[in-house]
Write a structure and sequence with these properties.
By secondary structure, this protein is mainly alpha-helical. It has a domain of 37 residues. It has two helices and no strands. The protein starts with 10 loop residues before the first helix and ends with a helix. The relative contact order is 0.14.
Length: 68
């Protein structure tokens, strides 16, 4: 079982998105990863990157405005 993060899709959200995801093509390689897990990973990266960027920008701004 994967770890739960605040960025993970809820079951209700997944049920809205799932019909929009194309099914795997016949004759192709079967999917080894659940699409819901892939989306959860993307949302996690986007959320943590955005948060980290905001923090680093504020810190950079404070350092630039500091009198040395």
């Amino acid at each position: 079982m994967s770890k739960s993060y605040s960025t993970n899709l809820t079951q209700d959200q997944w049920e809205l998105i799932e019909p929009l995801i194309p099914a795997s093509k016949p004759g192709g390689r079967p999917r080894e990863v659940e699409i819901c897990s892939v989306l959860n990973a993307i949302f996690y990266v986007l959320r943590t990157y955005a948060t980290g960027t905001k923090v680093s920008m504020r810190l950079h701004h404070k350092i630039d405005n500091r009198k040395l």
